[in-house]
Structures are given as structure tokens and as C-alpha cells.
Amino acid sequence: MNISTSRALFEKAQHFIPGGVNSPVRAFRAVGGSPVFIKSAKGPYVYDEDDNEYIELINSWGPMILGHANELIQKAVADAIQHSFSFGAPTRREVEMAELIVSMVPSIEKVRMVNSGTEATMSAIRVARGFTGRDKIIKFEGCYHGHGDSFLIAAGSGAVTFGTPDSPGVTKGVANDTLTAPFNDLQAVQTLVDANKNAIAALILEPVVGNMGCVLPEDGFLQGLRKICDEEGIVLILDEVMTGFRLAKGGAQERFNITPDLTTLGKIIGGGMPVGAYGGRADIMNKVSPAGPVYQAGTLSGNPIAMAAGLTMLHYLNDHPEVYTQLEESGSKLANGFRNSMQKLGLNYTLNQIGSMYTLFFTEQPVTDFPSAKASDLPLFGKYFHAMLDRGIYMGPSQFESMFLSTALEDKHIQKILTANEESLKQILSL
Ligand code: HOZ
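Above: the input record for the complex with (4S)-4,5-diaminopentanoic acid. Below: its predicted structure, written as C-alpha cells.
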């Protein structure tokens, strides 16, 4: 495959951008080789600067639920830009967006728009601290909540991919206020809570983890956390930046029947534009300025173009339940196909899948937490990644990421992914 233009761009980028990329995972360091630079995308396909076509499994890390360059969203953006790009003042669409989010996610009574998932999680933690008057938080090993200081302790996604789950630059004070527990380990959470009575403001997690690869909550885990939080007056925050409006209309919380106190949302509610939001119980959200004393602000928050894109997508999801049926079917078809191929080839790697999210882990052990995810054969994943890329399938370039499907995937695309998968496994294992 010719990627000479991408190579040249990457070479140049490294002179001007740290590591040549604006977000570390993109640099392909976990899988080796040179990243492909994307020029455009439509439906299930992305095209690189050398005009190679790929079926895409990143979907901008979640938001392209309807596939790339969806025409309804394009039109909404085209209409919105006629009226300028930013006002720094309230708009009608922000109210419509808040009303729609509240109607789709029942645990959210009030919501504040921000510009990214990172801003959403940082702000949610601040509000939880302001509400409880406590300092500490609990997060889970391998969960990633953006790059806010409090979360770069035992963090997943790029932080683990690049070996810096505890980033330099985070002060000892902040690190001391972040307690970590293994995912799916209720007893460990209880022990932390018992050892820090009346000191824990919030417990935050991805209800389905996407950032150590796709890892599901075991039966009763989320409900157990809810109970502990209720008993101890801890604010339960579900980070649904990647699962919100994807695993169900009301997100993972609907799917697993769990009611958080606060929810963080991200890129999905902008249809791919830079957006985030946090929301939840009115009594907590009323602490946010100017209703209350916890300060949080942003010139671009509720940006009119992003609101136009996000509103159009959310309305579509709200009005078309068949989207979720299709995502479930596509996820199942892929998972069944992967399992059939592995059986045929005598392989027993672990496939974690739920709805339109999945990760194939190169380990034979069940992956239920961070240590079991890290037991995967990472060099083998790198080979698999490139074997798939060579066959026109563009995956997240790290073992510690989830893949995301869109409704633009038709049976022929799923078949192509399955064929590429089987051929790639044969190639990398010399079968
Ligand atoms: N949370 C996103 C997926 N793991 C991160 C994307 C990125 O780091 O660029």
C-alpha cells in the first residue's frame, strides 16, 4: 500500500507538532509504522492522503454513529454557518439541546454544555467536590476520563499505550486525592471507602470501559457501586463520553439499569464536532455558577455550529429506534464471525463485545480489568493491526482501545472485515 504522502506529512509534522500528532494515540507508536493522514470520509469509509480507501472502525472514537458525513448533519451545519460561528451568548439551540438530553437520559435533570469530554469530567468532579465539601475521588485502573490532572493516575487509552498512566506534571497533591481501584472489584472499592470515611466526593467510571479496550461490567458491579455511593454520600459519576447514545438511546446507564448522580458526555452529542456536557441531579447541578458557587465557564460552550450538528444527530437517534437494532445486529454479526474464524483456526483469543463496541484481545484469558487487558500480546496486536490496515480496515491503533461501529456498515462491509480478520490472523500466526 502506498502511503508516501502520509509519510511525508508525518515527517514534516514532527518538526512542528510534539510527536507529529495532536493526540498521542494517532502516532501509531503502539503498533509501529507511520500513521496514515486522513483526507476525507463518507459513510463507512475513510480516505487517506494517498487516496487509499479503508472501512473504518474508529468512527472518531464513537460519535459517528450514523457514519461519516451524514447528509442530515451536513445540512444542519451548512444552515447554521450562515448565521456565524460563535456568539459567546445564549442561543435557542442550547435550550433545545438541554431539553433533548434531559428527555433521552432520565438521570439528567439539568445539563451544562462544555467543549470536550475532558472538560466535562473535570467539571463534574469539581461540582461533586463543591457539593459534598470533600476532596478525594475514586477512579478505576484503566479507565480514562480525558487528560485532566485528577484522572491521569492509572489511566487507560493513550496514557497506558505510551507507558505513562501516571503522568509527570500532575502534582503530588492532586495524585493524593485520586484513589484507584481495580475495575469489577467491589470489595476493593469498599475497602477504599472504609479507609477514607467522609473524604470521598465522587466515584467516576466508564460503565462499559472503552479505554483499556472494551471491558464490560460484571453482573451486580454497577449496582454495588450505586449502593456504596448511597451509603457513603458519594457522588456517582458515569462517564458516558463513548457509551452515551451509543449502547442505547439512554446510554450504558439505560442498558444496565443504573442511575448515576452525574453523567459526563462528549463528542457524540456534537455529532463529531468538539462538544462535551455534564449533567445529572438538579440539586447537584444547581451548585454550578451562576446558579451556585462552583465556577465553570467557556466562550465556545454551546457553540451554535456544534449544537446544530449534535441536535440533528440526537433527534435522529431519538426518532429512529431501528438505529439501535441495526447496531446490535452488526455487533453480533461481527462477534459471531470473529468467533467462528477463531474456532476454525484453533485460536482462543478473547473477544469482548457489547452492541456496537468491541475489542479482540490477544490473550486467552478473560479480560475483566486492567491487569487482564495488559496481559495481551501487544506486539502481536501490532502485527494484526497492520495486516488489517493492508487489507483496507482501519482500526484503533492500540490494543487498549475499543472499536466503534456505525449504521453505515452494511453486510458487505461486515463480510469484508471478517475476511480481512481471518486472513490477518493466518498471516501473523503463519497458519
Ligand atoms: N478517549 C479516546 C479514545 N480512547 C481518546 C482519543 C485520543 O486519545 O485521541
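Notes for the reader.
The chain has two domains: 4-69+321-429, 71-319.
The chain has a mean pLDDT of 97.
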